[in-house]
Design a protein that fits this description.
By secondary structure, the chain is mainly beta. It folds into 2 domains: about 40-90, no CATH class; about 110-255, Jelly Rolls (Sandwich). The protein has 1 helix and 16 strands. The chain has one helix spanning about 10-20, and strands spanning about 40-45, 50, 75-80, 85-90, 95, 110, 120-125, 130-135, 145, 160-165, 175-180, 190-195, 205-210, 220, 230-240, 250-255. A 5-stranded mixed sheet has the order 7-10-15-12-13, with no helix packed on it. Strand 1 (about 40-45) and strand 2 form a beta hairpin. The chain starts with 7 loop residues before the first helix and ends with a strand.
Length: about 260
């Protein structure tokens, strides 16, 4: 039985089609079958589209969109414009990722307004008509990169306040006192409160005491020289030990 033979002209057309690429794997519109292009940080998706690697919406692969929010506190990031890119987040301003959960971003904000040096201390004035002041603050830290200096904040920076106690004119001799409580913080937390004499240039000779997390009792300190009036006296709140927490300390200042 003889096998039918294709006309010579049809054979030539088929051969030409294979050679110029018009017949073969599915064309994706670029002239190449299902392209994967890595030059310039781009890569083709298996669905036939292309993306730019190195963005939070295409990190390591066109199909990987990094978790977390993009908002006033958090910015999603991708470490590299290659297939080895890894997702991350950067904290903005005074925001911190205290709980380590990328999904809610940098969820805690340090907004107590405290300074961190004697020169930048937040000021309080104990007028005779209002001899008691109260404020709450937080000593936050995390393992994230921060957009503003310092970019690494794995341990909190101490908060510093200044306290002025003008003479009331009635001859009273009440003591200047600062008290710290951290009852809402974890029990493994230990904070230190220090107060200087009036117009001190450093905390080297300050009077200090320790407060403990979970305890209702406050730790109170007075100026080393027993001053009752004047100032400014400087107060420093420092975290000594303990796990991270977004909860606040309580600071009372009186005379």
């Amino acid at each position: 039985m003889n096998t039918p033979r294709l006309p010579s002209l049809l054979v030539l057309v088929l051969a030409a089609s294979v050679m110029d690429g018009t017949c073969g794997p599915a064309d994706t519109g670029t002239g190449n079958p299902d392209p994967i292009t890595t030059g310039g940080g781009s890569a083709g998706s298996s669905g036939g589209g292309t993306c730019t690697l190195g963005t939070p919406d295409a990190c390591g692969s066109c199909s990987v969109s990094c978790p977390g929010p993009d908002d006033a506190r958090t910015q999603r990031t991708c470490s590299s414009a290659t297939a080895s890119g890894q997702c991350g987040i950067t904290c903005l301003g005074n925001a911190y990722d205290v709980n380590g959960d990328v999904n809610d971003g940098c969820e805690a904000v340090d907004n107590d307004g405290a300074g961190h040096t004697i020169a930048t201390a937040r000021a309080f004035n104990l007028a005779s008509a209002n001899p008691l002041n109260f404020t709450a603050g937080a000593l936050l830290s995390d393992t994230r990169l921060h957009a503003d200096a310092p970019t690494s904040r794995v341990w909190p920076t101490a908060d510093v306040y200044s306290l002025t106690a003008p003479n009331s004119g009635n001859g009273d001799q009440l003591s200047v006192v600062a008290c710290l409580g951290i009852p809402s913080l974890p029990s493994d937390n230990e904070f230190q409160i220090c107060i200087t004499d009036a117009n001190a240039a450093s905390f080297s000779s300050a009077n200090c005491g320790q407060a403990h997390g979970g305890e209702s009792a406050s730790q109170c300190v007075a100026p080393p020289d027993g001053s009752t009036r004047g100032g400014p006296f400087f107060i420093q709140i420092t975290k000594l030990t303990g796990s991270r927490s977004p909860d606040k300390y309580a600071l009372w200042m009186s005379n």
